[in-house]
């Protein structure tokens, strides 16, 4: 019989990589507003996207995928003197690292799972979804932030 422990180790590693965490962001992260969504994320980039969520769907443990996001609030590129920001505050937070950036479906799935976990933990989540993409230590990183009200 083949050893299947490798499969369970991979699944466990995936769960640990995307585990929900609580983050107290003490200083805002500043970004310069850009037009639209970045088409390519390279090694020196740091982008932040902010989406508004449907209030009803954002409080559902089983949100309807096509109704969750109502629109983009802004897209930004990291800049010390930027005028848009990820505000300081309390967030549920998850991140994923790999050799290429997550595509839209992958980060959206991650955001839905984060919402489910956050609500399961009885958090009251805000209606803004922040997604940050950057490169660090040889890996592309995707971070998902939701404010805790």
Q: How are the SSEs placed, and which strands pair?
A:
Elements: H1 5-17, E1 21-25, E2 29-33, E3 46-53, H2 65-68, E4 69-78, E5 84-86, E6 89-98, H3 104-120, E7 125-136, E8 139-148
Antiparallel strand pairs: 1-6, 2-4, 2-5, 3-4, 3-7, 6-8, 7-8
The CATH architecture is Alpha-Beta Barrel
* CATH domain class: Alpha Beta
Which fold name corresponds to the CATH topology?
A: Multidrug-efflux Transporter 1 Regulator Bmrr, Chain A
The termini sit apart by 51 Å
How much helicity do the residues have? 10-25%
3D architecture notes:
This protein has 149 residues and is an alpha+beta fold. It has one domain (5-148): Multidrug-efflux Transporter 1 Regulator Bmrr, Chain A, CATH 3.20.80.10. It has helices at residues 5-17, 65-68, 104-120; strands at 21-25, 29-33, 46-53, 69-78, 84-86, 89-98, 125-136, 139-148. β7 (125-136) and β8 (139-148) form a beta hairpin. The longest helix is centred in the C-terminal third of the chain and has 17 residues, at 104-120. Residues 1-17 have low confidence and may be disordered.
Features of this protein?
single chain, 149 residues, alpha+beta, Multidrug-efflux Transporter 1 Regulator Bmrr, Chain A, eight-stranded antiparallel sheet, globular, disordered N terminus
Summarize the structure.
The chain is α+β, with helices and mostly antiparallel strands and 149 residues long.
């Amino acid at each position: 019989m083949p050893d299947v422990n490798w499969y369970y180790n991979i699944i466990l590693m995936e769960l640990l990589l995307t585990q929900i965490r609580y983050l107290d962001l003490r200083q805002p992260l500043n970004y310069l507003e850009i037009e639209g969504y970045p088409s390519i994320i390279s090694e020196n980039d740091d982008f932040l996207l902010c989406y508004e969520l449907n209030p009803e769907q954002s409080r559902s443990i089983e949100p309807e995928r096509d109704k969750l996001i109502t629109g983009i609030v802004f897209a930004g590129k990291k800049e010390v003197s930027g005028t848009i920001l990820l505000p300081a505050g309390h967030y549920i937070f998850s991140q994923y690292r790999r050799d290429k950036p997550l595509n839209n479906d992958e980060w959206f799935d991650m955001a839905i799972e984060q919402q489910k976990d956050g609500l399961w933990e009885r958090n009251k989540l805000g209606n803004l979804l922040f997604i940050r993409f950057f490169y660090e230590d040889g890996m592309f990183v995707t971070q998902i932030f939701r404010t805790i009200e």
